[in-house]
Model the fold of this input.
Amino acid sequence: MNNHPIIECVPNFSEGRDLSIIRQITDEIEKIDGVRLLDVDPGKATHRTVVTFVGHPKAVIEAAYQAIKKAAELIDMSKHSGEHPRMGATDVCPLIPISGISMEETAAYAHELGKRVGETLDIPIFMYESAATKPERQNLATIRAGEYEGMATKLKDPKWYPDYGTNTFNEKAGATVIGARDFLVAYNVNLNTTSVRRANSVAFDVRENGRIQTDAKGKNVLDAQGEPVRIPGTCKSVKAIGWYIEEYGIAQISMNLTNINDTPLHIAFDACCNSAQSRGLRVTGSELVGLVPKSVLIDAGKHFLRQQKRSVGISERELIHIAVRTLGLDELSPFDPSKKVIEYLMEDKAAHPLVQKTLTDFANETASESPAPGGGSISAYVGALGVSLGTMVANLSAHKVGWDDQIAYFSEKAEEGQKLKDTLIDLVDADTHAFNKIMDAIKMPKTTDEEKAARKAAMHAATIGAIEVPLQVMKVSLESMTMLKEMSIKGNPNSVSDAGVGALCARTAVEGAALNVRINCSGFDDKAYVADALAQAESMLQEARKQEQEILAVVEQVIG
Done:
């Protein structure tokens, strides 16, 4: 529900045979709070291990630094040999934006990591892809040309001075390439055939590189330079080939989607379906290899709903369900989003104890002798229920017979409602966390002057947090009333009472959160902050009362 920034890191280490060395490197990653190790894939022939971990950016670059440092200690490149091209103990270390962060921001983190490694570990660092400092350094293969054995000479060339660190060759650790790149999705589409030739025909139709053009006699058509002329495929940034999977008894189109912004998963799937149908074949399902960001499946779900002329303003779990069923991701084996979606693997359920409860358990917890959850959490939840009713009206209106020309409008409003609902759901637990921080500050020791100062600072920060959360509840709940008002006026008249109940809930959320703001401001010594917070709360409170009356007036008029 929340959208904290998450990045993935996929360092490649030049050790694929000694599992104790690999384990010592991955132990460094797992020591860092805020990251999760997802995969460790050693290769004996390549003498290389690909590690995948995800987390919040600061934690990820700390884990990457510690792993690079440990690899430099344990791996001696002067004794290394393997089938895969390589130039350093940590050969390449890309950062990949997953959610809540842009490529530009991810590239900035890559530079932060590169600078630290270069300056503290004496390893020459080259930046590549979206973090490249020069166009000629965007391509990894270009930087790595000459490999470890040629790096000492390469570093003496001014054109190949490293971006960070010195141009003195590190004989033991070699050199490292760090950068930021797009997420790569490995994706296979299943066909109702056993023919590799026919699967390849579909792959050639779809992949960016397409196929070589031939003449009537089947000979390759050449250009003026004598090179084969290629007919490009339909999907940019897609590599594909056909193969036969004996285990399943079917042929597949095996694809790498190297830039999901150029060609999202659902577009590649549709392209395969269209090509297969034109060749007398049929796509029966598909298979995701590895993990994907949540957005990949959410975007697919929305795409297929739009094809059906239905509202896309449903919950993310429903959107993912639509995507899984339409793509046939469960044809060959069960597909569990909780094990395939990166954000779900990263979820800390302990951080959201209240929203994980059943309605009955939540009510019982509220009714217990514990002071939390209290009015703040309840206000946020009531606000979530209110905007949920408005979202329901939008979705019902999108599906009303005879209103097909308004589907896009109501779908947009339902999407807006879902975002507001998710924000308020997050604030249910945020309010309790804010209260707990105050209690933690109260329990801090206060014997020495230093302890007293630390306790005072903690109390100050915790109190501001306890005020900011209900202010946010007020803001979001008030924002939801604009949508509720539109639904009362333009929505399905048979559901106008639901919009009215939603408005009552939203106003209650604003009123309840305002009480929390006032009680948490009481006695707080930051007078300027208190004055501003109370002024904000009063302004939103008056506006909510006004909006409620306007919405109820519309509801009464429609009901008659």
About this structure: The chain has a mean pLDDT of 93.
